[in-house]
Amino acid sequence: MTTETAGTVRLAELGWDARWEALIAAEEDAGQVPARILREEKQLYLVCAAEGELLASVSGRFMNDALVPAEFPKVGDWVTATPRWNEGRGTIHRVLPRRNLLSRKEPWARTAEQVIATNLDYLFIMAGLDRDFNVRRLERYMVAAFESGIEAVIILNKADLCDRMSERKLEVEAAIPNTPVHTVSATDGLGVEELGPYLGPGRTVAFIGSSGVGKSTLINRLLGRERQVVRELREGVGKGRHTTTSRELISLAGGALVVDNPGMRELQVWLDADDLFPVFGDVEDVMRRCRFRNCTHTEEPGCAVKAKLESGELNRGRYEAYLKLKDETRRLAVKRAAKEHQIQKALFQKRLRKEKKKARADWRQL
Ligand code: GDP
Ligand code: ZN
Fold first, then answer.
1. Which CATH number, 3.40.47.10, 3.40.50.2300, 3.30.1330.10, 3.40.50.300, labels domain 101-260?
2. How far is the CA of 314 from the centre of ligand 2 (A)?
3. Atom 18 in ligand 1: residue holding the nearest Cα
4. Ligand sitting nearest the alpha carbon of 187
5. I want to staple 118 with a disulfide (CB 3.0 to 4.6 A). Which of 98, 144, 148, 349 is the partner?
6. Which of 109, 99, 106, 92 is nearest to 32 (CA)?
């Protein structure tokens, strides 16, 4: 493979490391090279390998073997590809096992998840310190971070509009322990240098948070240059689409890569009941101390929740946020079970059709 050439530097800049290297030994002799997906558009991919960028599509075999959309390459994926440098094209053979992924789920079907980006180092969870400031919303995004397994960093933006900045920060730190919190102003640049340590060369990050909290403003500041505009991938093939689109994995001035695609902007928080524990473990701990195991925390004697709420040791807002999320996960779980069943059935039939086709082909060869 080409990783000993000058290209090595480029791959490292894209996040390639020894752990990835260890995964590709088998492909070395087949003329395949590692490449990272920078952009995805209807099964055509802009990938970057050590020697440069290629437009690639998946091999016929890949297409045939894939059962669900999530198996196809996504922005951030490392793949192995056969380059055809003279054409600037390539064929993708394999998606290397993902370290993590950020997905938008149909709330009722885990298997129908839509992967937005993969292999992220940090998830920046952003909130605005203006009138919309809401710790509860941050908690929700934290649950999403835990669910994805990506390390979270909280950014409180619009510090310039807030005169109770340190108070807010303490409030967030109390509700969400063990997670770094930074206060910045994307417009003034105040505090933005605190994010430097997360944004070293080859680090891949994504920003989540409600619309209007300043994600685009901060990303633009971190870009340190005009946003690079690239041509439509299917240039010339299009049906009168004149819009230019930018790539979805963009390099920041410090060398990190940021995911910026429509999926990121529309990301909704979606939850599993088990995901609540890392964020609301304290609430669940109190609940376990009630005298009755099936305590509803309303009228029962010996209710630890009621006692702690009254003494103020358990914050009422936090408890109510927990109940609301708990209820939501319960309703979603029921919906999902039904949908999952339907999907599994469809997958089984798809597999069966493939098996039959293969059996027929084998038969013909005899
Ligand atoms: P996004 O929806 O999260 O991408 O938010 P935008 O980056 O589009 O920002 C929404 C609005 O907030 C814009 O009008 C920004 O100019 C403004 N904004 C973003 N960051 C700051 C900040 O640090 N301070 C102030 N005062 N306004 C900001
Ligand atoms: Zn109770």
1. 3.40.50.300
2. 12
3. 214
4. 1
5. 98
6. 92
The per-residue pLDDT for range 195-247, each reduced to its tens digit, is 999 999 999 999 998 888 999 999 999 988 656 544 455 554 433 343 334 56
**DSSP per-residue string spanning 250-267:** EE-TTS-EEE--HHHHT-
β-pairing, 151-157 with 249-251?
unpaired
Percent of the chain with pLDDT over 70: 85
CA distance 50 to 18: 15
pLDDT of residue 352: 86
Q: Is 11 helix (H, G, I), strand (E, B) or coil?
A: helix
Predicted structure pTM score: 0.77
Q: Give, in words, the CATH class of 3-95.
A: mainly beta
Ligand 1 atom, smallest distance to 185 CA = 23
Q: Where are the domains of the chain?
A: 3-95, 101-260, 273-348
- Mean pLDDT per 10-residue segment, the chain (366 residues): 50 94 78 93 90 94 87 95 94 95 68 82 94 83 82 96 92 90 96 96 93 90 69 46 58 91 67 70 92 92 96 91 83 74 80 85 80
- Ligand 1 atom 7: residue of nearest CA: 214
Average pLDDT across the chain, whole number? 84
Pocket of ligand 1 (CB under 6 A): 157-158, 160-161, 185-187, 211-217
CATH, range 273-348: 1.10.40.50
Can you spell out the DSSP letters for 95-145? Answer: EPPPS-EEEEEETTEEEEEEEEEES-SEEEEEEESSTT--HHHHHHHHHHH
Burial 64-75 (b: 16+ CB within 10 A, else e): eeeeeebebbbb
